[in-house]
């Protein structure tokens, strides 16, 4: 027990960790706030620089950037009507109208406090739920891993914008990229096209920097001269009564945030939209109509996207599966540091879990401090012209990619993935499923083959296992339900059985 | 499923390319170990390739419901596509980026980065050369301080 406490307080008591968390949170707010720089981009570029660090130092910085970055997007959403990050798209719906009414200061203050509320609820739920899920995960058979990963990929496909087919295609493409290299069992080359360089596989941080950095930079070239609007900011701190008034809503939306965050592959952006939708449906008398500056419309997405951070850590720390794109990068960082995210992490390295929980709380404290400060300086900072920002992003992508393995070949690959990502983006494909596919693909391959081996190479026996074990049955039903929910079949069934269902 | 949705220019071609690409992936997956057993190195890749083919077909079917884009002939479609998605800024910046990556190994990281930053900032803002040189120099110093000194990262 005392060990647990010392791990929890580790980040609070070590000056260096304290400083790195503060630095991360501060930098995260500003990175997240600059339209065009996303948290995922920042974390994926930065993580490659921390490979030579001590693992705690690296995690402290990343947690700070994660927490700060998710919040930071709200500032530019409120001030400029340009969400700094995908997770703050919903924040702009009511945040910008508030700014137009001269209430930008109060809106930023409220969103800061509410982000902290969401962040703390998320962390508490992480601390209480993860050990339980971790225990359950120890009983997972390989086929259950396979099913959970499938659910994750299907959810990303179905919940992200656009068509399910596009989402699934992107995820499968990612899986193929992830499978490139030597087969872990027989050391046979897969998809290497006879190239020796490809035998080692494609590092997914390279893929990620290409998709989120380069592709995004090229995409931003289309709106080089979007006009800059200047804002006056004052009266920042919200009154206690105001915070108290929104507390019930914020708790509800935080829970939505955590639950959405827990689902493998779905992150703060979807959590925020769902929470906004929830607020719109449940709040009867909003302070102003929704879409015209309702504080409720600001509270809901801001609590949810911050709470989703804690949620996203749950599958990562317990199953070794990323809860969203950022935790996917963090998994990479843990592996580089010789740790093995998955059910054994809590047993072998319990300090990582409690350290992360303590660290998340600390980052939220810093968020409160930095979030209420320096808004004037900030207004200047977000006005950084895109003409400077875009070339700088490319240089950072090069530096970030090169630092992974000191290989120029990987830098060329990164640019190639950037162009591929740009093309896919044009035709409405999402980048998230590709990354998750690249991470979950190899994991699914391994668990599939373990499952097949334990079924004695009889596919029939494996299929039987899917429905006879209670845990597998639940997961299999989830897969089937998600698939059905996305086909016209469900609608047909509903219309056919509607008289029957009306009774229940 | 809005029937009045319009196809993007080049979407059909892209869709066909996706399908071809998926078939190539399937072929490559088949090459790994054929259909030898359900537990071979190639089994899961074949499954993934099948998923790609099926979803590419589904994407193609989704296109059927959409109206065709207004363009006459392939050449016009190509030109529209280029104008919409590869305007001059994207092409020139892309060219600068490729040259930059190629130049890193010839003329060292700092020199090529400086030149790349100056040229692209000047191009993207249509001028103000002195200002761009100043900005590039400041950024380069920051990169040096942050990455070489603080993070001690190997630069290309």
Automatic annotation (TrEMBL), chain A:
Transmembrane intervals: 20-47, 59-78, 107-133, 145-162, 168-186, 198-219, 255-276, 325-346, 352-375, 387-405, 411-441, 462-484
Ranges for domain DUF112: 18-436
Keywords in alphabetical order: Membrane, Transmembrane, Transmembrane helix
Domain of life of the native organism: Bacteria
Pfam families associated with the record: TctA (PF01970)
Coiled coil: none
Keyword Signal in annotation: no
Protein name: C4-dicarboxylate ABC transporter permease
Organism: Pseudomonas sediminis
UniProtKB/TrEMBL annotation, chain B:
Matches recorded under Pfam families: TctB (PF07331)
Transmembrane region(s): 12-30, 42-64, 85-103, 132-155
Keywords: Membrane, Transmembrane, Transmembrane helix
Domain DUF1468: 14-156
Annotated protein name in UniProt: DUF1468 domain-containing protein
């Amino acid at each position: 027990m005392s060990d647990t406490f010392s791990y929890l307080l580790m980040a609070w008591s070590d000056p260096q960790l304290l400083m790195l968390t503060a630095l991360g949170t501060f930098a995260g707010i500003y990175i997240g706030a600059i339209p065009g720089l996303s948290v995922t981009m920042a974390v994926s570029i930065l993580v490659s620089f921390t490979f030579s660090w001590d693992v705690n130092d690296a995690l402290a910085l990343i947690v700070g950037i994660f927490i700060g970055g998710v919040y930071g997007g709200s500032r530019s959403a409120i001030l400029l009507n340009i969400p700094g990050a995908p997770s703050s798209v919903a924040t702009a719906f009511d945040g910008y109208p508030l700014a137009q009414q001269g209430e930008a200061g109060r809106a930023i203050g409220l969103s800061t406090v509410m982000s902290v509320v969401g962040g703390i609820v998320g962390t508490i739920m992480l601390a209480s739920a993860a050990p339980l899920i971790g225990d359950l995960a120890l009983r997972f058979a390989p086929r259950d891993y396979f099913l959970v990963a499938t659910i994750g990929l299907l959810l990303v496909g179905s919940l992200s914008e656009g068509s399910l087919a596009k989402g699934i295609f992107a995820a499968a493409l990612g899986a193929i990229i992830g499978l490139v290299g030597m087969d872990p069992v027989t050391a046979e080359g897969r998809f290497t096209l006879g190239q020796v360089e490809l035998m080692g596989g494609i590092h997914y941080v390279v893929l990620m920097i290409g998709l989120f950095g380069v592709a995004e930079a090229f995409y931003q070239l289309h709106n080089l001269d979007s006009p800059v609007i200047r804002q006056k900011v004052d009266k920042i701190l919200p009154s206690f009564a105001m915070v108290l008034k929104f507390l019930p809503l914020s708790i509800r939306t935080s829970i939505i945030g955590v639950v959405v965050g827990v689902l493998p592959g779905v992150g703060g952006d979807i959590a925020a939209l769902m929470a906004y939708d929830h607020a719109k449906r449940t709040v009867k008398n909003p302070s102003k109509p929704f879409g015209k500056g309702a504080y409720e419309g600001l509270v809901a997405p801001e609590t949810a996207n911050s709470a989703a951070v804690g949620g996203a850590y749950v599958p990562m720390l317990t199953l070794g599966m990323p809860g969203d794109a950022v935790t996917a990068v963090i998994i990479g960082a843990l592996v580089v540091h010789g740790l093995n995210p998955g059910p054994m992490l809590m047993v072998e390295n319990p300090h990582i879990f409690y350290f992360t929980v303590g660290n998340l709380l600390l980052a939220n404290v810093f968020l409160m401090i930095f979030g209420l400060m320096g808004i004037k300086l900030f207004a200047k900072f977000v006005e950084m012209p895109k003409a400077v920002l875009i070339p700088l992003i490319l240089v950072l992508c090069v530096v970030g990619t090169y630092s992974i393995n000191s290989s120029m070949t990987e830098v060329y690959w990164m640019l190639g993935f950037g162009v591929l990502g740009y093309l896919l983006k044009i035709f409405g494909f999402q980048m998230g499923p590709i990354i998750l596919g690249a991470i979950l693909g190899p994991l699914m391959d391994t668990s599939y083959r373990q499952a097949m081996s334990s079924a004695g190479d009889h596919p029939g026996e494996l299929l039987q296992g899917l429905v006879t074990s209670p845990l597998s049955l639940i997961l299999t039903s989830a897969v089937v339900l998600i698939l059905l929910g996305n086909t016209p079949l469900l609608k047909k069934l509903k219309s056919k059985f509607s008289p029957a269902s009306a009774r229940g | 499923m809005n029937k009045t949705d319009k196809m993007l220019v080049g979407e059909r071609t892209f869709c066909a390319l996706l399908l071809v690409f998926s078939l190539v992936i399937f072929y490559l997956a088949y090459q790994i170990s054929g259909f030898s057993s359900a537990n071979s190195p190639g089994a899961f890749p074949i499954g993934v390739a099948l998923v790609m083919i099926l979803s590419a077909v589904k994407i193609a079917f989704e296109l059927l419901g959409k109206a065709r884009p207004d363009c006459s002939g392939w050449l016009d479609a190509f030109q529209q596509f280029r104008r919409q998605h590869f305007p001059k800024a994207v092409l020139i910046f892309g060219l600068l980026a490729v040259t930059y990556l190629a130049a890193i190994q010839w003329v060292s990281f700092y020199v090529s980065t400086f030149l790349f930053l100056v040229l692209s900032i000047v191009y993207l803002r249509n001028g103000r050369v002195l200002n761009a040189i100043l900005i590039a120099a400041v950024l380069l110093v920051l990169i040096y301080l942050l990455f070489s000194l603080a993070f001690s990262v190997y630069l290309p």
